[in-house]
Amino acid sequence: MDFSPANCPRLIVKVGSSLLVTPDGQVRRDWLATLAADIAARVQAGQQIAVVSSGAIALGARRLKLAKGGRASLEDAQAAAATGQIALSQIWAELLGAEGLTAAQMLVTLDDLEDRRRYLNASATLNRLLTLGVVPVINENDSVATEEIRFGDNDRLAARVAQAAGAQGVVLLSDVDGLHAANPLTHPEAPLIERVERIDAAIDAMANGASSSGMGSGGMASKIAAARIATGAGVALAIASGRVDHPLARLADSGRGTLFVPERTANARKAWLAGGLTARGQIAIDAGAARALADGKSLLAAGALSVTGRFRRGDLVAILGPDGGVVARGLSEYDADDAARLCGTRSEDHAAILGYAPRSALVHRNQMALL
Questions:
Q1: Beta bridge partners of residue 328, listed in sequence order
Q2: Quick one: which of 12, 117, 323, 345 has the most CB atoms within 10 Å?
Q3: pLDDT along the chain (371 residues), means of 10
Q4: Is the pTM of this model over 0.85?
Q5: Alpha-carbon torsion, ordered 350, 353, 354, 357, to 10 deg
Q6: CA distances, 343 to each of 286, 292, 296, 333, 361 (Å)
Q7: Beta strand 326-331 with 316-320: parallel, antiparallel or unpaired?
């Protein structure tokens, strides 16, 4: 694998619950201290690192004696997160402080990274912290998140944070050493996939949706989803084992893991659009329109087949190709009702249909990212 944490001026390191916390709710302090030492070594070498850290719910559930690790209900998870987050932050501050580093806490919600203005605010904060040599420790604000509006796993959060921070790489430390051709817990002979140039149906088929520890909310499927976000923004993503001491140093030395290669570089706005998780609606298009988008054209009403969802002008929508797959995401130029009225119609008829001067496209190419 031709990727090393040492190659990235800015790196995002994601640590899952099962690595931080034992099944009975105890912090793995000795292991975490080796990771803190790795981070300190990289900062000393001039690298800037932010950490996306799970573990708040697992820690809080133990302190509150909640069933099912605090995940029996949304209310339990929120209470556990509120209780555990303060302990989690203290642990990171202590261990990074012992290495001469200053830690900062950032709690974010899905909307903080999906709303463009709030995204830019988060980006500015991250940039300033990193340039000051601080190590931001980031987590989803599970104490206020809802089932409908949340990342749900820190893998995708890490990929979005990488975009916001302008990072070049993400390392997902996992309880397995990468993507295997089959689940290595049930098929130990399954070979490791060391390099993924493109995420396709075959790669998706290798993932399963379960966390092996039963403690976290992620799994290989969430890591594949994170890789889509990261690589679409020109960010490399690696999955590597966290079941060893000094996991970053081990990854740099051995290269063992799975590297998802960035598919392309993208400007910041289009990377943000491509990584969006909360499309307000969908526009289905025909084959001709799909070809036009691939050629860099805007989405015209003539190529639209149908509109679903309730969205307003400026909301993020998913554009579905003839096979039903998402081919692009973009900001709609119309409210859903008006967009639906225009489906399949010619541009010269739009003023009469709408009763006002129409816009040039349903989704303009400058406000669209192909997937």
A1: 319, 370
A2: 12
A3: 74 94 89 98 95 93 89 88 94 98 94 81 92 96 68 86 92 92 80 90 72 51 90 90 95 92 68 72 95 94 95 89 89 93 94 91 86 78
A4: no
A5: 40
A6: 11, 16, 20, 13, 11
A7: antiparallel
